[in-house]
Amino acid sequence: MKPWKPDIDRKMVFKSVKEYPPMAVSLYTMMFNKTGTWRTVRPVINYEKCVYCLMCWKFCPEPAIYLEPIEVKGKERMKPIIDYDYCKGCMICAEECPVKAIEGVEEER
Amino acid sequence: MEGGEGMRLPLPEREVMTPGHLACQGCGAALTMRLALKALGPRTVLSIPACCWSVIDGPFPHSTVNVPLFHTAFETAASTASGIRAAFEILGKEDVNVVAWAGDGGTYDIGIQALSGAAERNDNIIYICYDNEAYMNTGIQRSAATPLGAWTTTTPVKHPKSEPKKDMVSILAAHRIPYIATATIAYPEDLVRKLERAKETKGTKFILILSPCPPGWKTRPEDTVKLSRLAVQSRVFPLLEIENGEKWILNMNIKKPVPVVEYLKPQGRFRHLKEEDIQRIQEYVDKEWERILKRCGLA
Amino acid sequence: MRKVLMGNHALSYGATLSRVQVIAAYPITPQTQVVELLSEIVADGKLKAKFIRVESEHSAMAACIGASAAGARAFTATSAQGLALMHEMLHWAVGARTPIVLGNINRAMAPPWTIWTEQNDSLSQRDTGWMQVYCQNNQEVLDSVIQAYKVSERVLLPTMIVLDAFVLSHTYEVVDIPEQEKVDEYLPPYNPPYRLDPDEPHAFGGLTGPDGYFELRYIIEKAMEESREVWRETGKEFGEVFGREYGLTEEYKTGDAEFLIVASATIASTARVAVDVMREKGKKVGLLRIRVIRPFPFDEVRECLKGRKKVLVIDRNVSFGFGGIFYQEVKSAMYNEEHRPPIFGIITGLGGRDVRVEDIMEMVEDVERREKPEDIIWKGVRV
User: Does domain C250-379 have CATH number 3.30.70.360?
Assistant: First the structure.
């Protein structure tokens, strides 16, 4: 399961001073901002090649990769899953993957 | 660091920071914050001066870090943090990390006075400088952290940076603070270990984290982690710790260094360098490395 | 308890009684005694506070802002160059809505070097959003610190308590030091609506575009407007609890006055003596002392100046290229009023040049001789 969930679906613009806090304080997260739209290339994990080393998860700057427990050949592993709502397509994950299990696919726009 | 039954993760699992923020694709500073918050945990208060993170965190009324964050003036990361810590002490709030989180501009240049003041007083703060080696937020201008020979908008190709990188680590060591460390994103376990150690230490802690910047270094976004690894492997950015300003510990003694040209080649900001410039940089790196070895008692 | 105190120590006692929790200050003549006494009081354990010996005034204000944002009552003191160095952070304290109280010893700006009194340092900051209280005696200095915390924490705007260098800061006067229990009744603990707290995380001061910033400015101005009534209310309450009442202004023998002097700080207390002397000679003269200049006391000024024959505003400051600052502001406040009197302004006492009772009487005579006001009239300069 994704460890994050948006609390609001768009940037908040208060309609009047009555709604404002007394100073500029944050009241919401940035998760309304689905940065997946920034992508020109989409990283795709080939789970047949994946050795579950979690390099991709370690190095994602967003984070846009989350983990789910899985059983692989009778062993407990964590499976990295890319959240395409937020993945900006930087491809660090692909570059760092030691077994080249992540491929870049051109986004169709 | 458990995840699943009997499964050990290389880093703390919990994501304190959530996505949707405004960092560029492949931003070293974003990864630095993500890793740092994993190490420090949610009971952390950030004092952030003008820098890329002033924007990355998101506009009012939004924030991406999910911890208390005080945006403050450019030169005041350390002095604001000192005030925050004093308040928590008098209010009896002990179990909170007070962290000044600044770029290289706000640390090496305009912020150095406040940092020196806090260090001299040994205020109980963790000062983290995420170093992308220029004033990136304002469009890639040169700072004292910009390395020798680099292009920036104020050190154009006809006049690249003629001074070497300011040695902040030695400056802080001279303040004899309890703990100093260098780290970078290619070695996340090392980074986390050092921040956890800083958490447990009382007094002023200074952590310098090399954070490559694709638009500023003119590099491909996917190379960000690779470049920080090359920086260490070429001896340009030694990973070390200093205790009480006196005991220097080299975490990775790079016995077979990568030639510095391999580190410089993928970076557009060094594209203008000629053979003799690269040679000069290699000599400088070699000399600095000898100095570090001596300091660490490994010469 | 009554003690003979210098103005600076009155500030220290005011801060101590207000139970300030974080003090961050840097020394500058003639403020040093404020923080010296406070550091002793803290070291003796008489005040439970953290004293940060910062390395500059800019850092002093930054540390106070951080501390206040984290939920502590913060205090600092400075003067002239130090206040000027803090300027960027003075704006920050207002935007961040941190109710800090600062003691400013009015000292003339360098160069050349000087340590004597003039109001330019604090008046240069009048656009920042800080509330400003000009004191005429050391009792008022002590009392105003306590009242200022009450007002500031209610409206979430910082206040500077201003006193003249040497004339007040280093002059010893009898001051009644209130009992801590009474002050605790009057001034509740600081409890901001938002603070730095891991249990309730917020980012303070995030990037705000044209779609959001305007309202934040409006909100600050509304807080300033609200503060006028809060100053009046808390000033009255001060009278009830401590026996000394304070307003935004103070009037002396204004009832039937045809000639009105408007002044502030210690020039006002000298003017009070001049008023008595002139009254004895049969002149119908009165004094309006402006105590709080930000927020500007429009109602009090308009009410008091209405229908006078002549008004003289005395300034111990000058806005180069325009003239005396209190003069400008009083004139502008009266411009649209129906029964506005002719208003004259005189600049005097800059750089600490002494202003005596005779000088004030001469100023009044000078103005009486004039038919029309001028933009600048000087008194006491050797031209």
Answer: no
Residues in chain A with CB shorter than 8 Å from the CB of B63 are 26, 28-30
**How many Å apart are CA C108 and CA A10, to the nearest integer?**
52
**Residue A70 pLDDT more than 70?**
yes
Q: Over 80: is that where the pLDDT of B237 sits?
A: yes
Facing C52 at nearest CB: one of B62, B72, B86: B86
How many Å apart are CA B2 and CA B24, to the nearest integer?
31
- Domain-embedded: residue B7: no
Asked whether the predicted pLDDT for residue B161 surpasses 90, the reply is yes
* Mean of per-residue pLDDT scores for chain C: 98
Name the CATH topology of C2-242.
Answer: Rossmann fold (3.40.50)
Task: Write the pLDDT tens digit of every residue in C368-381.
Answer: 999 999 999 999 99
CA nearest neighbour of B193 among B40, B72, B33, B85:
B40
**Domain layout of chain C by residue ranges:** 2-242, 250-379
Residue ranges per structural domain of chain A: 33-106
C-alpha distances (whole Å) from C141 to each of B237, C119, C131, C160 are: 56, 16, 15, 11
What interhelical angle do B112-121 and B77-90 show, nearest 10? 30
The answer to whether the Cβ–Cβ distance between B224 and A92 falls below 8 Å is yes
Please give the DSSP secondary-structure letter assigned to residue B141: B
Selection from B174, B172, B182 nearest residue B207 by Cα: B182
Q: What is the pLDDT of residue A1?
A: 87
Cis peptide before B49 (omega within 30 of 0): no
Give pTM, 2 decimals. Answer: 0.97
Rounded Cα distance between C304 and C313, Å, is 13
Q: Name the residue among C363, C139, C207, C367 with its Cα closest to residue C270.
A: C363
How much is the average pLDDT of C299-321? 98
Per-residue pLDDT at B6 exceeds 60: no
> Which residues are bridge partners to C319 per DSSP?
C323
Domain for residue B198, yes or no?
Answer: yes
Give all chains having 3 or more CB-to-CB distances under 8 Å with chain C.
A, B
Query: Which CATH number applies to A33-106: 3.30.70.20, 3.30.70.1560, 2.60.40.10, 3.30.1330.30?
Result: 3.30.70.20
pLDDT at B1: 45
Task: Name the residue with tokens 């004293």.
Answer: C51
Token readout for B223 is 């190379």
For C210-272, give the DSSP string.
TTTHHHHHHHHHHHHHHHHHHHHHHHHHHHHHHS----SEEEES-TT-SEEEEE-HHHHHHHH
pLDDT tens across C219-260, in order?
999 999 999 999 999 999 999 999 999 999 999 999 999 999
Q: Tokens 């003067």 map to which residue?
A: C79
Gap between the Cα atoms of C219 and A20, Å rounded: 9
Q: Tell me, what CATH number does B246's domain have?
A: 3.40.50.970
Chain B hits for A15, Cβ within 8 Å? none
CB pairs under 8 A between A and C: 44
Our count of domains for chain B comes to 1
What is the chain A residue with the closest CA to C193?
A: A22
Q: Which of A29, A38, A51, A57 to mutate to test the interface with B (most CBs of B within 10 A)?
A: A29
pLDDT at res. A44: 98
Q: Model confidence at A89, in pLDDT bands (50, 70, 90)? A: very high
C345 within 8 A of C377, measured Cβ to Cβ = yes
